Amino acid sequence: MRRLAGVLVLGLGLLAPMAVAIADDHPRHEWSDNEDPNWRQYLKERHRSYHDWGHATKKEQRAYWRWRDAHPDHH
Question: What pLDDT was estimated at residue 75?
């Protein structure tokens, strides 16, 4: 039993850096005034009337960021 616990601890220790690397690859989202045109486009594509980002639900904000990840800026 002690040996199994040691193997599990070692395995988790080896997997931890991978988990951190995967988490770092996920884009970080921060709202700024520069996002407003994209927010308006997102709402337009969904036939929704404009409302301020601050009034969007958490569910709507998560959906926007998923959409935004698929529609990056082309500068």
Answer: 45
**Model pLDDT for residues 15-33, shown as the tens digit of each residue:** 767 655 555 556 688 999 8
Q: 3-state DSSP call for residue 46?
A: coil
Beta-carbon contacts of 71 under 8 Å, excluding residues fewer than 6 positions away, are: 38, 41
Q: What residues contact 36, with CB distance under 8 A and at least 6 apart?
A: 53
**d(C-alpha 51, C-alpha 44), whole Å:** 11
Sign of CA dihedral 57, 63, 66, 70: negative
User: Is there a contact between 50 and 40 (Cβ–Cβ < 8 Å)?
Assistant: yes
